[in-house]
From TrEMBL:
Residues spanning the signal sequence: none
Organism: Geotrypetes seraphini
Gene Ontology annotations for the cellular component aspect, listed alphabetically: plasma membrane
Name used for this protein in its record: Nyctalopin
Source species, domain of life: Eukaryota
Pfam families for this protein: LRR_8
Length: 502
């Protein structure tokens, strides 16, 4: 096998082990050549790629020995991009260095590179054409670079396969409208925690965008054309901005939207057709705004909505029919508002709700929300609804409030019911009346001199059932007309005490 010898020099031991059996073999030369070709096809290329990745690693960096060549140059205090990356590199990390400037073709030509990370550096300027030698780059991360204030229109030229771009937590105030014109494959755009005052016009017409992160900026409005021609957008995060205005039908081109975050803004009103045609929306967050009234027109098209946040607003009124079409809703958050009461008809269409959050509202626990208490007991989907009024049940959870019925079968509010005599009060009145009656009888009988001092006429109110009951073996000697007079006096006394109590 002399023809094999030149091909074995310098190869890894794993490959030598696979080829050694053929060196001393008596098999025909043609057969052995075929086997060598098979070994080269199956093993030589990947093993050589791993071997070359580690061998040509830049100084101080770490290159993995795995199939996909990864070059890790993070936390090294680098002030510029190193030279000589392995040509087979598929991932390069330069995170947490001190790189300030990216020159043209800063990474050379790396046809296998798919992911590049430059997070947490001090980048201030990116030369147009910096990434020109990276034709297959799919993911580019440059987040947490506080000095990036400006991007040239041609910054991302030639990145036709880029699907994810991360520029979060930089210092961007705006980007050129045509900056993404060479990024037809872009799907995920991460721009959160910058200084945008409006939604960047550069995203208009990006038909392949599916995810946009714009939270924690300074955006003031969502204009009618801000999201124009974003037909594949499924996720939009605009939370923690300064949005006070949303134009009518602003989201009409986002027909595939599934997740929409508008919480922590300055919204007090919404157009009636704000969310029209968002039939695939699954989660809508409008929490922590200043909404006072909820219109029945807002959610009419949201037939697939599963989670709705309206918490921590100033809502005091929900229009009847608001949740009429939300047949898929499983979680509704209304906690932290100004709700005092609402009718059963508002919630009747969503009786299959999984969770309903109503705590931290000034609930008036009267008969108008008796149905809610029954719903709590029947479905166990709601809890923690402390009453704010009336005073008789203030601080008491609605689940512990008792709604009594009038003789006609009508519900009695807790305050109304509490004016009637309770069992504990009746006991006190009974004891007082008994004491007065005993005193009255004793004085009356002793005054007539007919009753021995040792005689206990009536030890309890119930024992004094009739004056004739005293005519037993130890008769008191009271005459018949005296008995009648005494009975009449007792009746007058009892009636007077009853009137006094009532």
């Amino acid at each position: 096998m002399m023809f094999l010898a030149p091909n074995l020099n310098g190869l890894p031991k794993q490959l030598l082990f696979l080829l050694t059996p053929y060196q001393n073999s008596s098999m025909p030369r043609t057969f052995m050549q075929k086997q060598v070709v098979r070994v080269q096809v199956l093993f030589l290329q990947p093993i050589c790629a791993v071997w070359l990745c580690a061998r040509s690693c830049p100084p101080h960096c770490f290159c993995t020995q795995e199939k996909n060549c990864s070059v890790l140059c993070d936390h090294l205090g680098l002030s510029q991009v190193p030279n000589g990356f392995p040509c087979k590199a598929s991932f390069i990390s330069l995170d947490k260095n001190n790189i300030k400037f990216l020159s043209e073709k800063a990474f050379g030509t790396l046809p296998s590179l798919q992911r590049l990370s430059l997070n947490h550096n001090n980048l201030s300027f990116i030369t147009p054409g910096t990434f020109k030698g990276l034709p297959n780059l799919a993911e580019l991360k440059m987040a947490h670079n506080k000095y990036i204030r400006y991007l040239h229109t041609r910054t991302f030229t030639a990145l036709k396969k880029l699907t994810k771009l991360d520029l979060a937590d930089c210092n961007l105030f705006n980007v050129p409208d045509r900056i993404f014109i060479d990024l037809p494959s872009l799907q995920e755009l991460i721009f959160f925690q910058n200084n945008f005052r409006r939604i960047p016009g550069a995203i208009r017409g990006m038909r392949n965008l599916t995810h946009i992160y714009l939270e924690r900026n300074k955006i003031e409005a969502v204009a009618y054309n801000s999201l124009q021609d974003l037909g594949n957008l499924t996720y939009l995060n605009l939370q923690a901005n300064k949005i006070s205005v949303i134009h009518d039908k602003s989201f009409q081109d986002c027909k595939r939207m599934e997740y929409l975050y508008l919480n922590d803004n300055l919204l007090s009103e919404l157009p009636e057709a704000s969310f029209k045609e968002l039939r695939h929306l699954k989660m809508l967050n409008l929490g922590r705004n200043f909404i006072r009234n909820v219109s029945s027109a807002w959610f009419q098209d949201l037939v697939e909505l599963e989670v709705l946040y309206l918490d921590q607003n100033s809502i005091s009124y929900i229009e009847e029919g608001t949740f009429e079409n939300l047949s898929s809703l499983v979680s509704l958050h209304l906690n932290g508002n100004n709700l005092k009461s609402f009718s059963y008809s508002i919630f009747k269409p969503i009786y299959f709700l999984g969770k309903l959050y109503l705590f931290r509202n000034p609930w008036d626990c009267n008969c108008k929300i008796e149905w809610l208490k029954e719903w709590m007991e029947s479905y166990r989907l709601v809890r923690d609804i402390p009453c704010f009024s009336p005073k008789s049940v203030a601080g008491v959870d609605l689940s512990e409030v008792t709604f009594h019925k009038s003789p006609e079968g009508f519900c009695l509010d807790p305050a109304e019911h509490n004016t009637s005599v309770t069992p504990t009060v009746v006991v006190g009145i009974h004891s007082t009346m008994e004491s007065k009656l005993n005193s009255f009888l004793s004085k009356l009988l002793l005054h007539r001199g007919r009753l021995p001092a040792s005689r206990n006429v009536s030890s309890t109110f119930s024992n004094f059932t009739g004056i004739e009951g005293m005519d037993d073996g130890s008769s008191s000697g009271i005459e018949e007309h005296d008995k009648t007079h005494l009975t009449n006096c007792l009746l007058v006394f009892i009636m007077a005490q009853i009137v006094d109590v009532l």
